[in-house]
Design a protein that fits this description.
Elements (H helix, E strand, L loop, with lengths): L1 E4 L5 E4 L3 H11 L12 H7 L1 H19 L3 H6 L4 H17 L4 H28 L2 H12 L17
Antiparallel strand pairs: 1-2
Helix pairs in contact: 1-3, 2-3, 2-6, 3-5, 5-6
Length: about 160
């Protein structure tokens, strides 16, 4: 079992077993069999923090119920480093649950995470290379006169 800590300082235990898999399916509508059947669930869990948190809440629901933590309270305490830690704990538990397929799932997750990081790095480089003055000029050139004093059309000008 893996653990992660949310932004409220609570430590959660992630235990992926048949009971948790059924609970995730019933509460969230996510079928863990997609991890081994070629669906895009792994990518969605890695890249979408809302899906990740919904899955994690369902996995951790018995623990949350004991503490009186609602799914809303759980979600409010998830962000930043908490999501990164939770994602890693979840992935490790999924790999362990799918014992035979686990190494393949781990390799796929590592590739997806590497691709995700490369995309972020490319976006960061593009932002760093942005010429703010040129961007402003281009925006003004394509948006027309922003002063609000454009001449009236001939249709709306009264004849003298």
């Amino acid at each position: 079992m893996k653990t992660f800590t949310d932004n409220a300082g609570r430590t959660w235990t992630v235990a992926v077993n048949v009971d948790a898999v059924k609970r995730v399916r019933d509460l969230v509508g996510v079928d863990f069999m997609e991890f081994i059947e070629g669906g895009d669930l792994l990518e969605r869990v890695i890249r979408n923090p809302v899906i990740l948190c919904d899955v994690l809440y369902a996995v951790c629901k018995p623990e949350a119920d004991e503490q009186g933590i609602s799914d809303t309270d759980f979600g409010r305490a998830m962000g930043g480093a908490a999501i990164t830690g939770a994602r890693e704990a979840c992935l490790e538990e999924i790999v362990g649950f799918f014992h035979e397929e686990g190494p393949t799932i781990r390799r796929q997750a590592d590739k997806l995470l590497a691709a995700y990081r490369k995309v972020l790095a490319a976006v960061s480089l593009k932002i760093d290379a942005l010429d703010e003055d040129a961007a402003i000029e281009a925006l003004l050139a394509t948006s027309g006169d922003l002063s609000g004093t454009s001449p009236a059309s001939s249709e709306s000008t009264p004849d003298g």
